[in-house]
Design a protein that fits this description.
Blueprint: E1 2-6, E2 27-32, H1 34-41, E3 48-51, H2 58-67, E4 71-73, H3 82-91, E5 97-101, H4 108-119, H5 121-126, E6 131-135, E7 139-144, E8 147-152, E9 159-164, E10 168-175, E11 181-187, E12 196-197, E13 202-207, E14 212-217
Parallel strand pairs: 1-2, 1-5, 2-3, 3-4, 5-6
Antiparallel strand pairs: 6-7, 7-14, 8-13, 9-12, 9-14, 10-11, 10-13
Organism: Peribacillus cavernae
GO molecular function: ATP binding; kinase activity; thiamine binding; thiamine diphosphokinase activity
EC number: 2.7.6.2
């Protein structure tokens, strides 16, 4: 099962949402705050909605209530963001794939907070086999634990960056890349693994310790 969450980030940063409605995979859509309204505008009725809905008008909120049954309304003053509440709900559904849209662009504090959702210990360990990605028009971002991974070329996102988010990441090995590495160690703050590229249809990366953010990007 695939769960797709649309948060309330700028719509100009969104990819083509229709490409994530695959007839071969059950797709469950979740809207967060204004993201619910955006989904409805795109002809997608979400399974559930979460938020304080302070970014929609009363008329838009009424439209949301009339369009769907499961609307979770929260106070604006709370300890979690609307996206975190929706993300935690989605993580409990045991999906094979979890995509988050509308989580980039706009406020930097929101962006950094949203990235940190992927880095919570219970997420990276318990859901290590679930593909969890933050996606926008020019980037696909995911967090990885130690292991061996295969990457295939994405034509419109030729750059591949590996960013350490723990104190150090050990044993990084890159095969099939323009700038290969063999058993390398990088520390947080290093830019050594920024803007690499695959030189064939696929390549592999592996590491033995730490956590990496893997970012596929276009200009």
């Amino acid at each position: 099962m695939r769960i797709c969450i649309l948060a309330g980030g700028p719509t100009e940063s969104l990819p083509d949402l229709s490409t994530y409605n695959d007839n071969d995979i059950e797709s469950l859509w979740v809207g967060v705050d204004r993201g619910v309204h955006t989904l409805l505008e795109n002809g997608i009725t979400p399974h559930a909605a979460f938020g304080d809905f302070d970014s929609v008008s009363e008329v838009e909120l009424q439209t949301i209530r009339e369009a769907m049954e499961e609307v979770h309304l929260y106070p604006s003053e709370k300890d979690e963001t609307d996206l975190e509440i929706a993300f935690d709900w989605a993580a409990r559904q045991a999906a094979d794939e979890l995509y988050i849209f509308g989580a980039t662009g706009g406020r930097l504090d929101h962006l950094l907070g949203n990235i940190q959702l992927l880095l919570r210990e219970e997420i990276v360990k318990k859901h290590a086999r679930t593909e969890i990605c933050i996606v926008d028009k020019t980037n696909i971002l995911t967090a990885k634990l130690p292991g061996v991974y295969k990457l295939e070329v994405i034509p419109d996102k030729k750059y591949v960056s590996f960013v350490p988010v723990t104190g150090e990441v050990k044993g990084i090995t890159l095969h099939g890349f323009k700038y290969p590495l063999e058993n390398c160690q990088i520390k947080i703050g290093s830019t050594l693994c920024i803007s690499n590229e695959l030189i064939s249809e696929s390549g592999t990366f592996s590491f033995t310790d730490g956590i990496l953010l893997v970012i596929r990007s276009s200009d």
